[in-house]
Amino acid sequence: KDNKLKHSLDSLKKKETEDSDETEDCLLCCEPIKYSSIGICNHRGVCAMCSLRSRELYKDKECPLCKKTLD
User: Suppose 32 and one of 17, 19, 23, 48 were both cysteines; which one would form an S-S bond, judging by CB atoms 3.0 to 4.6 Å apart?
Assistant: First the structure.
């Protein structure tokens, strides 16, 4: 019984470690997202740098996913 419980706990710890290692990548630059930006459409998946680059350099004020205008 104790071995079964220990095995279950070990499996759970392994799963938690695997899940925490997963990072989301930016849909535009494909780099891991450290800081993300979220618009009023609530879409995520774009890093803050790509969002800033799109808005300021390219004057593109649309969500890259749904193309809704973000003010």
Answer: 23
